[in-house]
Amino acid sequence: MGPGEPLFSLREVGYVYSGRQTALDGLNLDIWPGERVVLLGANGSGKSTLLKLLDGIAAPSRGTMRALGCDVAAVAAGQEAFTFHRQVGLVFQDPDIQLFSATVLDDVAFGPLQLGLTTEEVRERCDEALAAMEIAHLADRAPFELSGGEKKRAAIASVLSLRPEVLLLDEPTASLDPRTKWVLVDLIQRLGAAGRTLVVATHELDIVPLIADRAVVLNEQGRVVADGDPAAILADTDLLVRANLIHEHLHRHGPISHSHRHDTADEGHYHAPETLDGAPLAESADTERPGATRVAPIERS
Prior knowledge:
4-stranded antiparallel β-sheet
């Protein structure tokens, strides 16, 4: 990869499963060193498939794709794969895929040991990765003894020990309780602040402003429908509805019935009355005014 070139360059990239099911269609995308990119999309939008392409474990069905100066199709076929995977690390949504050893320390040490490093170098990398995820106290625990959040952090540590230039995270906060979720978000923030390139797939809008400086939205047909500033994208309600990231539905609060959009990225939202005891009201905009019901934001711990 030469100076001034993107880390990843995708041109008209598509991916089809079993020759029938299209997961990605016509993607044109560049990702630059040091960027913190979030991939937003509903379930089935192709986010996980795109991460696998970026990690070089799958090749595009059509189009061209280069990553870190390499042809991804060649990497997926085994050419330069060893070198490539030292620089790009993927953390799967299910941490059990990556935790297979007797202890957390063994899992974190697995990657560095494959590099032929000395015992001292392996120990240094393990200590560094465990400290970054704040799980040094779990080093001697078996993976099956960990909570869901602890497993997520251990899986990330097992990739960090390779010191990759790029970290790919697939739904890192999925299925976590609120406290554990925000602890992990804070740790991800620190990884980005340290200068590492991050690409995070998620459909949880509330974490986006904290972990990303760029958002890419995939629709349910596996196409990029928006790419830009996270704040602007999160403010585009129509876009989020079309991408199935938020939804409209009917609410009823006592005698007041109305429909409005739910956006978990908002710091609270307004319920503007549209009907009162069955009688329509002239105004229905979500603005603060007499008669509007303020819904307070959830306090974050």
